[in-house]
Every structure is written in C-alpha cells, then in structure tokens.
Amino acid sequence: xxxxxxxxxxxxxxxxxxxxxxxxxxxxxxxxxxxxxxxxxxxxxxxxxxxxxxxxxxxxxxxxxxxxxxxxxxxxxxxxxxxxxxxxxxxxxxxxxxxxxxxxxxxxxxxxxxxxxxxxxxxxxxxxxxxxxxxxxxxxxxxxxxxxxxxxxxxxxxxxxxxxxxxxxxxxxxxxxxxxxxxxxxxxxxxxxxxxxxxxxxxxxxxxxxxxxxxxxxxxxxxxxxxxxxxxxxxxxxxxxxxxxx
Amino acid sequence: xxxxxxxxxxxxxxxxxxxxxxxxxxxxxxxxxxxxxxxxxxxxxxxxxxxxxxxxxxxxxxxxxxxxxxxxxxxxxxxxxxxxxxxxxxxxxxxxxxxxxxxxxxxxxxxxxxxxxxxxxxxxxxxxxxxxxxxxxxxxxxxxxxxxxxxxxxxxxxxxxxxxxxxxxxxxxxxxxxxxxxxxxxxxxxxxxxxxxxxxxxxxxxxxxxxxxxxxxxxxxxxxxxxxxxxxxxxxxxxxxxxxxxxxx
Lengths: 246, 249
Ligand SMILES: Nc1ncnc2c1ncn2[C@@H]1O[C@H](COP(=O)(O)OP(=O)(O)O)[C@@H](O)[C@H]1O
Ligand SMILES: [Mg+2]
Hints:
By secondary structure, chain A is mainly α. Chain A is built from 9 helices and no strands. In chain B, the strands form 2 sheets. In chain B, strands 6-7-8-3-9-10 form a 6-stranded mixed β-sheet, sandwiched between helices.
C-alpha cells in the first residue's frame, strides 16, 4: 500500500513537471511533429488491419447466432455497429496500442535516462520531463480519437465483407448499421479513447522516466509500462462505463 | 570558483560522500581522482543537483545551488557545461543538431549565427565536416569531442567532466585532456575533471583532490603527488608496475 502511494505521488509530481509552459514554441512544435509521426501515423497500419478483421469476425459470429428466421437480417449490421462502437474499438484497440505505443515510449525515454541524455537535458537547464513527455501526451490525446474513428469505419467495412457469405444483403447491412443510432455512443467512445490515450502516454512515460540502471532495466520498464497501462485501461473502462452508461 | 563545504551524501544507508570540502579554482583544470567506486561521479552530480545532497553547501561564485528555486537553478545550469562519461549525445539528432540544441533552446540568434557558432566549436575540437553524422556513426574519441563542443557552445563559466578519457587509447586520451585544459585557460572557465587515469593526472594535474571511500584524503599538485607520503594515495598512484618503477628511479 505504501509503495502504491509512493508511485502515485511520484507520478503526480512528474505530471506537475510535465504540464509547465514549453520554453521554446518552435522546439515544442518540432517535437510534437515527431511524436505525431511516431504515435499516430505509424499506428495507422496496425489499426487498419486489426479493425478490419475484428469487424469481419464480429459480424460472422453475430450472423451465426441470429440464424433463426425470427430475427430480421439487418440486426447483424446493428449488432456489429454496437459492439464495435461501444467496446471493441475503444477498449481493445487501446489495449493493443498500449502494447505498441506504451512499450515504445517507455523504452525510448528509459534508454535516454540510462545513457544520461536526460541528465544532459537537465544540465542545460531544460525541463526534461516537459520537453520529452508533453509532446507525447498531446500527440496521443489528439491522435487517438482519429485512430479510433478510423478503426470504427474500417471495422464496419470488415463487418460487411465478413457477412457476405451469410446471406444478408448489402442494403440490409447498411440499414442495420444506421438502425436506432444513438449519437451519445460516439461521445462515450471518444471520451473513453481520450482517457485511455492519457493513461497510455503518461503511465508509459512515468515508467520510462524513472528507469534506473542499464539496458536490462529499460526492458523491465517497458514491460511494466504495458502491464500497468493495460490494467488502468481496464479499470477506467469499468469506471467510465458505469458512470456514463449505467 | 566553485566551493563545496561539508558535502555528505548517502544512498539508502550507504555513505558515499563523507564531509567533503574543496575549492575548485577559476581558470584551472581541477582534478578529482580516486579509484572506481570512491564517489567521484556522485560528487560531480551532487554539485549540480543531479543528485540531492544530505548536507553541505555548493557555492557557484557565492550562489548556493541547493538553496536556489527551481527556475533559478535552471538559469544557473545554463552557465554550466557538462561532459558525461558515456557522451550522452541525443542519439536521434545529428552532430550539428546536438550542438545547435542549447542555442536554439536558449538564444535568439539567427540560424546563420547559430551554424557559425557550431562550426567554430567543432573547429575548436578539431572536428570538421562531420556535421551531418549521427552519434551512432562516431568513434569514441569523436563522441567525446562532440560532447565537448556541445558543452562549450553556450560559453559556460563552469565545465564539469566525468572521466572524459575513459575508453580511449592513451594518445587520444591525452589529446582530449589537453583540449579541455586549453579551453579552460582560453576562456577562464572553472573546470572540474573526474579521472582515475594517472596519465591525465601527470599531464594536466595542477590542482588535485584525492577521494578515497567518500572522504577527501589528500589535495595538492602533481609535483606534491609524486613526493607524498600519504599511504592510500601512494597505493592508488603507484598501483601499476610502470609507476612503481618510475618512483624507484
Ligand atoms: N543512484 C545510486 N544508487 C545507489 N548507490 C549508488 C548510486 N550511485 C552511486 N552509488 C554508489 O555510490 C558509490 C560511488 O559511486 P560513484 O560515484 O559512481 O563512484 P566513481 O564515479 O568514483 O566510480 C558506489 O559504491 C555506488 O555503488
Ligand atoms: Mg564514475
């Protein structure tokens, strides 16, 4: 318990250091640009592939469960949309991105720590936490929602491809994905995504920033970053769903 | 001048610096020598707050570093250049961007002025035409030179070097030592160099502090060192056969 509080305190102190005004705007924007590429653009490929297949599988499974002629076929489209929007895209994709981006952030910052590059920044009088971490957090907060919207769209296309063999027509699939649409679900999905983006970028930065030792510890930090980001994603998923939908 | 007074530091029960006091003089290359693990790196890092200290004062020309507010600390740090043991170049930036970085961060010079300054510094450390290499493409000696160039680009008043010639062949090591000494004298910098290398002690040791198990055991110049009767110091200095033989002759 003591240890948890210590980590929490250190984490909050770090955030306090991170959220200070950038010293030089041009340098900050340059860093932000780099992070957009690393965190955002480089994830588009994996997001596309995963979303497509998840969408396809979800629609096939739904179709399989709705075999009875009592159910109208468009329900397949409807159910696919609901599961993608509510859970698969925001949560599952965030878990996958925690693996990709979280380990990347933690190992990058961790190896800068053990090779004394962070000390070199500090010694120049740079606020190293803000310089390194703020662009990562901002880039994640801005780009994650875009990735998730992309993911939902690709997922729906995947769903359409997936149910080609199940006898449902394109028209009724399209009718299904528009059926009884609640726009609040989009808000809910984006709120969740934004929170997850903050968790992944800040928790992973935390483990990277406080790495001690050598190459071995960089590996350990990056594992810890993924594990704890995932745990917090699941925890906050539960809390937010309870708050927003119940 | 950097004065340290009664510095104590321990890492979880283990006392690493035990009441160390010393004056590092301006315009001189002040050496801290001692065996590996004697606390040299810890002392250097404690001076500028990369480690906290448990007790004592560090005065940079009268300013007590550990009593300053965080913003003032950052300001003071802009007057300090530091050379890290592993170089600590930013590995995703080219040589030129590494040296440009502090200029871009803290000055309003135009881009030509900045590039000129970078080239001046690179020339000073005898490295030309490698502006666009990445740190991973440099040899050990080149890495040290680039770090020196980066450390002096802001014209610091204080220069701290942690084992600047570790991992270099004896000839390159002496070149680097001499370079640090020349730069120190040219710009009247207060320089502190950590080393366990007796060659560099004999080359540039004008003011030497000997650290043994966290205590300041001895201080003096290289001539005092040869004739010293201090037992620990003699064990350290004359550890190698070469130096033992020199002492006899
Ligand atoms: N961050 C740290 N945590 C715990 N112990 C440390 C730390 N840094 C240094 N030490 C210990 O302090 C002692 C002195 O280390 P150091 O200052 O690196 O010696 P030197 O640079 O003279 O070789 C060593 O015994 C080392 O184990
Ligand atoms: Mg050392």
